[in-house]
Structure formats: structure tokens, C-alpha cells
Amino acid sequence: MRILVTGAAGFIGFFTAKYLLERGDTVVGIDNFNTYYDVGLKEARASVLEGYGNFSMVRRDIADRAGMEQLFASERFDKVVHLGAQAGVRYSLENPHSYIDSNIVGTLHILEGCRHHDIEHLVFASSSSVYGANTTMPYSVHQNVDHPLALYGATKKSNELMAHTYANLYGLPVTGLRFFTVYGPYGRPDMSPIKFAKRIVERKPIDVYNYGDHKRDFTYIDDIVEGVVRTMDNTATPNETWDSAAPDPGTSRAPYRIYNIGNQNPVDLMRFIELIEENLGIEAEKNLLPMQPGDVKDTWADASDLVADVGYEPATPVEVGVKRFVEWFLEYYKPEPEQSA
Questions:
Q1: Which of 41, 64, 158, 270 is found 20 to 30 A from 164 (Cα to Cα)?
Q2: Do residues 162 and 156 make contact, with C-beta atoms less than 8 angstroms apart?
Q3: In 10 A of CB 136, how many CB atoms?
Q4: Residue spans of alpha helices (H) in the chain
Q5: Is 290 exposed, middle or buried (0-12, 13-18, 19+ CB in 10 A)?
Q6: Strand 267-268 versus strand 215-216 pairing type
Q7: Torsion of CA 33, 20, 237, 178, to 10 degrees
Q8: Distance between CA 122 and CA 8 in Å, rounded?
């Protein structure tokens, strides 16, 4: 197949594109290489992908309407995996306009491209952040998600609504995936694993919010990618039993599906930090702080629908995932010996 992967120089986009390339698909990646975090890491991911003969990278912003129209018209994609977005909950408090430009305007351009060019299936990234103020655990796609706590979550909920309208109006098969705390090699440096590891090897205190009283459904990147690709291969279809008198938020009478994709096994934040400490061989000094604005206390994915529909089966225990992450971290960042001794 010929597949467009947006955000291909990003964390999940990189590994998804790599998986597709290795199974023999032709992949066109698109990324704007913005400076939200270290562009060098994005270039490192891109350089790996560019080593494949069946890959090409388009350096363009998905918010560029004319550019996206030209891309869809010239490339004739079979399927689209839309992972490009302005990420980060906390940054959305500082720079809200970038979330509208990328996550709302950019996603509209993807939907329009799919609509006008007979795309077989669009899979797009949503987020566990849509659950917002919900406290019923585990989070289920059959719950309403009408109380986001930060603009990032609101844009992802908006993406789900936008996608549903295109499924309804134009018969475009769309599937949204709500990711839960993805970690692993080549991970985003604005997320806690790299932030913690860097400060620990530098012998600097790490900031631990809500005094460490958090649980997160940490999900290893390999398990995420398997779920993304299985979903892409399983084209969304209408739910023939959908009832407008008791509407199910996770399905529709249109060819639309929403799934949680997570490890289904929440881990105490302090345990996650402990595993990083053990693999680095350094005990962290912890700066315990109150909850941050826009944050949630716990996350826990009910991924049973994804398990039932596509055979998703996360297989990486957090002990194994953190070990692999730290091995990559030490190899990639090469901290000074006196720091990591």
C-alpha cells in the first residue's frame, strides 16, 4: 500500500512509518520539524527513515492548505495515518494558537484530502487527555468526554467530532486512537522519562507533581505501533445496532470508531521513577510539588474494544520497557562518565 504518515519525524509517527516500511509498504512522511522540542532528535528519526528506499519525507506544515491539496493530488495514497499534531498539555497553556493551527486547521486539511481522494481508511491520533475531569476508572470509549481540562484535550475531542462528521457526510472510514502515556526509545524530550533521566544523570533534582501521587497507564512504543497498524488494516465500518435514543460515543451509524490504546495496567509514578533510577544506577533527588494546572491525577485505559476488534495485545512489561528506554538514552545522549557513574 501507499500510505501517508503525518508527524513522521515525531515519536509515534517515526516508529509507525518504520514498521510499515519494514513490512513492505511505501510510506510518504510529512513533518514541519518545528522547534517545540529538539529538532536534532526529529532529524535523527528522519535520517533512519530516509535509509529505506520505499520512504520519502515531505517537509511541510499540515496547516498549509495549498500544500496539502497539492500533496494529496500528486501522491494518490491508499490510507492515511494522521499522527502529526502540536503535542503537550502544559505547552497549551502558553501557546494556544499553535494547537488550533496544527490540531484543528491541520486536521481539517487531512480530512479534506481524504474526502476528495478516495482514501480507504483514515486513522488519526486522539489522546487520553479527552477524558479530562472524568474520574471513573478505567477510562472507556463508551463514556462521554465533555469536560477537557486543557486546550490540548479540547482540540483532540474536536478532531473526533470533525472526523465523525466526515464519516457521516462522505462515508469516509475513520478511526481515532486515544493514546495513553507512550514511552520508549526516541521519545519526546518534553515528556517525563527523558526529563527525569537527564536530570538524574546530571545529579539535579527532578520535579515530581502532586507529590508523586499519580498513576499513569505507561504504554511502550512497540505495543502502540502494533495497535496503530492493526487498526489501519481493520477499516472502520458502521455499527448497525447503533441507537440514536441511547447513542454510544465509541461507535456510530457512520463508518467511525474510537478506541483507547494503552497498556491497561496503571503504574505508580514513583515506581516508574524507581525503575529509571535502577537502570541508571543513580538515586534521584525529588522535588515534590503540587498538581499542575490542566493535569489529571490518574489514567487507566480500557482497551477491550481494541483487543476484541483487531487483536491488540500489549506485551511489554514496564520493567522491560524502561530498561530498553534507558539503554537507548545512554547511547543517544552519551552523558559524561562522571555524571552517569
A1: 64
A2: no
A3: 10
A4: 11-22, 39-49, 65-75, 91-94, 96-99, 107-116, 151-170, 192-201, 221-233, 269-280, 304-310, 318-333, 337-340
A5: exposed
A6: antiparallel
A7: -50
A8: 15
Give per-residue pLDDT as tens, 281-311: 999 999 988 988 877 778 889 999 999 999 9
**Which residues fall within 8 angstroms of residue 276, CB to CB, at 6 or more apart?**
193, 196, 197, 200, 284, 322, 326
Distances (CA, A) of 37 to 15, 189, 191, 255, 275: 18, 7, 10, 36, 25
Residues labelled catalytic? 152
Residue 110 CA to residue 112 CA, distance in Å, equals 5
Whole-number Cα distances in Å, 1 to 23, 27, 76, 194, 302: 10, 8, 10, 34, 31
Cβ–Cβ < 8 Å for 56, 77: no
pTM of the model: 0.95
User: Where on the phi/psi map is residue 132: left (φ > 0), alpha (ψ -120 to 50), or beta?
Assistant: left
> For residues 139-152, b (16+ Cβ closer than 10 Å) or e, as one string?
bbbeeebeebbbbb
The terminus-to-terminus CA distance of the chain in angstroms comes to 48
Q: For residues 118 and 2, what is the distance between their CA atoms, to the nearest angstrom?
A: 13
Q: Which residues contact 211 (CB under 8 A, 6 or more apart)?
A: 288, 289, 290
Per-chain mean pLDDT for the chain: 94
Residue 330, all three cell numbers: 545512554
